[in-house]
Amino acid sequence: MYKVITVSTSKRIEMIDITSRVRQAIKESSVREGIAIVYVPHTTAGVTINENADPSVAKDIENTLTKLVPPDKGYLHLEGNADSHIKSTIVGASINLIIENGEIVLGTWQGIFFCEFDGPRSRKVYIKVIEG
Ligand code: ZN
């Protein structure tokens, strides 16, 4: 069993803080000690952990990924979203979280971000909690 979160994105490239929603899903699992896998089942999106205190950090990441992988660079994939697939692979499709006393162990400034690279769309995030 795993939990599913739905994320609605509103831009082509957008990092959305989903920390509180992941925290809620883990609470609902009632697991006190274990790990959680947060997995994005999409080829043009990703999930990452980074600073959520200053929103400029996410914006800088979005802008830098766009500079590194521009939308139109003569890619072979003709669907018009080759850059989105590449950004997805750079960021990655999953993260692992430690759960201790029913809470996610995160650094002071860390948050969990869903990364949209080909929005706007309705997206899914899967959360598998393993006790141990
Ligand atoms: Zn494609």
How would you characterize this protein structure?
The chain is an alpha+beta fold and 132 residues long. Helices cover 27% and strands 37% of the residues. It contains 3 helices and 8 strands. The protein has helices at 19-29, 55-68, 82-91, and strands spanning 3-8, 14-17, 34-39, 45-51, 94-100, 103-104, 110-116, 122-131. The relative contact order is 0.39. Zinc ion binds next to loops.
Characteristic terms for this protein:
132 residues; binds zinc ion; alpha+beta; Jelly Rolls; 5-stranded antiparallel sheet
Bound molecules: zinc ion
* Termini Cα gap: 16 Å
How would you spell out the order of helices and strands?
EEHEEHHEEEE
Number of strands: 8
- Provide mean pLDDT, rounded: 97
The CATH C-level name is Mainly Beta
